[in-house]
Amino acid sequence: MSTADLFAAVNDAVPEPDPLDWDRVRAFIQSSPEALLQDHDLLQAIGLKPRPDNVVEFGRAALAKLEAAAARESDARRSIEQVARANFAAQAQTHVVVVDLLESRNHADLARRLDDAARTRFGLVSGVIALEKPGNVPFGWRALEDGGVDVRLGAYGLSRLGPLGGDEPLFGAEAERVKSAALVRMALWGPTRQAIVAFGSAEEDGFAPDMGAELVAFLARVVERTAERWPVL
């Protein structure tokens, strides 16, 4: 027998290893996971790293909570951005209105410009200037009874934002359309006469008590200073 024949006979006598049975391997890993976790060389060979004991492993429930929290944060961020854009737009419009009010030629023109700005710039029903009696009331302004400002704002109130309806002395023919309003106190001339700058909205939540009054108060101060250019005749 030749050497080649001898080697062939030996090879034929050695049985071939059984093919890899993945189910058996998987079952073994499931029953003895520490065998895999402790074999760092094997983990590195297959591109994995051992998990330290102080690392929290997130399950589906935890991931769902994280996704929900992220969604809420995203919604909150969008809401804040929308409010910021709205505030910026309101401030820009207010600055335009201020320039327009400062160009008024008389009391009547001042009242007309304020009402026009309320309607066209801010989408409101009306913007009015009201002055308490006794005494003359400029043309285009609303006349209020003596003490009418305190009735609407309180004895020491400077502003009021919120629901308001049916105030005909203040809004005249537009009173039925006004569902909420922003009112700001003014003190004009000497001796001081009480007055109000009022903006009326057709929406019940157009003005609300929790809203800031800074912009309407700013406009009221502009109206106040502009009105004092001219005496009441």
Summarize the amount of helix as a percent range.
40-55%
* Rg measurement, Å: 40 Å
Number of strands: 5
| CATH architectural name of the domain at 104-227 | 2-Layer Sandwich
Oligomeric status of the shown chains?
single chain
State the order of secondary-structure elements, H for helix, E for strand: HHHHHHEEHEHEEH
**What is the CATH topology assignment of the domain at 104-227?**
Beta-Lactamase
| Overall body shape | rod-shaped
Number of helices: 9
CATH superfamily of the domain at 104-227: GAF domain
Largest sheet: 5 strands, mixed
What is the average per-residue confidence, as pLDDT, rounded to a whole number?
Answer: 82
Share of β-strand residues:
5-15%
What structural category arises from helix and sheet content?
Answer: alpha+beta
CATH level 1 class label of the domain at 104-227 = Alpha Beta
Short description:
The protein is of the alpha+beta class and 233 residues long. It is built from nine helices and five strands, in the order ααααααββαβαββα. α5 (60-102) runs parallel beside α9 (214-227).
Secondary-structure blueprint of this entry?
Blueprint: H1 3-13, H2 22-31, H3 33-37, H4 40-45, H5 60-102, H6 107-120, E1 126-132, E2 142-144, H7 148-153, E3 159-163, H8 168-171, E4 180-188, E5 193-201, H9 214-227
Parallel strand pairs: 1-2
Antiparallel strand pairs: 1-5, 3-4, 4-5
Helix pairs in contact: 5-6, 5-9
